[in-house]
From TrEMBL:
Keywords: Glycosidase, Hydrolase, Signal
Protein's recorded name: Glycosyl hydrolase
GO-annotated cellular components: membrane
InterPro entries, per database record: GH, GH30_C, Glyco_hydro_30, Glyco_hydro_30_TIM-barrel, Glyco_hydro_b
Residue spans crossing the bilayer: none
Organism: Paenibacillus monticola
Length: 448
């Protein structure tokens, strides 16, 4: 008999709780059973992992607001594969994002000045909170992969003269490619290799209340093909280049980039704020050798907690993975009791962090996003191969992986309005039967 470990989330009062087979509601023989069948012979993408972002705000809250004991506990629960949920991907903003205490790049200058040699380039800002936390995370989980995405180039490189809005001036394409090299080299000196970069976060969105930069598909193709990739080759940098880094509703953008810079692009990065996850497969079908990554999705007040919000993360996470993604990365690792800090002038924030850190009381709260990520990250480990899983009931969503140690990880979600009886089958053999309540999530680790 295979060894089976089961974790269950059933409402806000019972989140990611280990269950013995005896604790699960048994299924009687005369009831209708939904069969979930795992086929390990049909394989798909290899997993890099799950995670969130050490934005300036998140890093400040964790590194400066929490006391040393709280910080150690949190970092362990986030990154330790045994004592915690083993997060294995972190996506860092390159400079300020909307979740930063002020607006900054790595080469800020007075108005009308330029620095084409990047003589004033510095990552000193990140050395205060972000880099120490990344180093600690990497020590807790040596399989951690670091991604990086800018919200804007330094203002002096742009048509707006500011990190707010505008486009990258053509005459600074090479300087901006040098800027990426300097960033990667500087982080490497701190023992932090950069696994992948994107040229621009949300390149089709140009808000005027936080750092942003419009970068149309044709400009991104040109930048990657003629400047960024050649610069990486020149400096012996093997960091992957992912294009797009925006919502599912514009697959035409990455398709355009890949048509012009196919050899220079390693994959596509996606967000969930528009469209649906099937767009990942549309582009994958057109460019089968390109990786798929999901690099940002935030929970927030626009979806009511608890059940609707928790269900959304689990449901969407399963679909992201079933549509070939090698990563599933949420947004802020931590926010405070006001969903901040945010850049000056941002206004009311409605986003939710993986944890909440109250700046007044210092209280640390693990949010629903932490427990939703746990259902995936705890058992689907880096290097796992997605294997086929099918359900005879349309409301029972599933995704399955075979880990490098040959254990099988299965995530199930009952998206229906009624409890359902489940039989989990590995190939033709029935492993376990149980009853799963409506809007409940179950993660199963099978040692065969």
């Amino acid at each position: 008999m295979p060894e089976i470990i089961i974790y269950l989330s059933k409402g806000e009062s019972e989140l990611f709780v280990e269950q013995s087979l005896q604790q699960l509601t048994p299924v009687t023989t005369d009831t209708v059973i939904a069969a979930v069948t795992i086929d390990v012979n049909r394989t798909y993408q290899e997993m890099d992992g799950f995670g969130a972002s050490f934005t300036d705000s998140a890093a400040y809250l964790i590194n400066q607001v929490l006391d040393s004991e709280q910080k150690a506990e949190l970092m362990s629960k986030l990154f330790d594969p045994q004592a915690g949920i083993g997060l294995s991907v972190v996506r860092n903003p390159m400079g300020a994002s909307d979740y930063a205490r002020d607006i900054y790049s790595y080469d800020d200058l007075p108005e009308q000045e330029t620095d084409t040699e990047l003589t004033r380039f510095t990552i000193a800002h990140d050395e205060v909170d972000i880099i120490p936390l990344l180093q600690q995370a990497l020590k807790l989980n040596p399989e951690l992969k670091l991604m990086a995405s800018p919200w804007s180039a330094p203002g002096w490189m742009k048509t707006s003269g500011s990190m707010i809005a505008g486009e990258l001036k053509k005459e600074y394409f090479q300087v901006y490619a040098d800027y990426f090299v300097r960033y990667i080299q500087a982080f490497a000196k701190s023992g932090l290799p950069t696994y992948a970069v994107t040229p621009q976060n949300e390149p089709l969105f140009e808000p005027h209340h936080y750092p942003s930069m419009l970068m149309l598909a044709e400009a991104q193709s040109d930048f990657i093909k003629n400047y960024l990739k050649p610069n990486f080759i020149k400096h012996n940098i093997d960091t992957k280049i992912l294009c797009y880094d925006h919502n599912w509703d514009r697959p035409d953008y990455p398709l355009t980039v890949l048509e012009h810079a196919e050899e220079e692009v390693d994959g596509i990065a996606w967000h969930w704020y528009g469209g649906d996850a099937s767009a990942q497969s549309v582009v994958k079908q057109a460019f089968a050798d390109k990786e798929v990554h999901f690099t940002e999705g935030s929970g927030g007040e626009w979806i009511p907690p608890f059940e609707q919000a928790f269900s959304n993360v689990i449901r969407t996470g399963i679909e992201i993975l079933r549509n070939h993604s090698k990563s599933f990365v949420l947004w802020n690792m931590a926010l405070d009791e006001h969903n901040g800090p945010t850049v000056p002038g941002f206004g009311k924030s409605t986003c939710r962090g993986i944890v909440q850190i109250n700046q007044q009381t210092k209280e640390l709260t693990y949010t629903l996003d932490y427990y939703a990520l746990a259902h995936f990250s705890k058992f689907i480990r880096p290097g796992a191969l997605r294997v086929d899983s099918t359900s005879s009931n349309e409301f029972i969503r599933s995704v399955a992986f075979r880990n490098t140690d040959h254990t099988i990880a299965l995530v199930l979600f009952n998206d229906g309005e009624e409890a359902e009886n489940i039989a989990v089958n590995l190939q033709e053999a029935e492993l376990v039967t149980f009853r799963i309540e409506s809007k409940s999530a179950v993660s199963i680790m099978i040692t065969v």
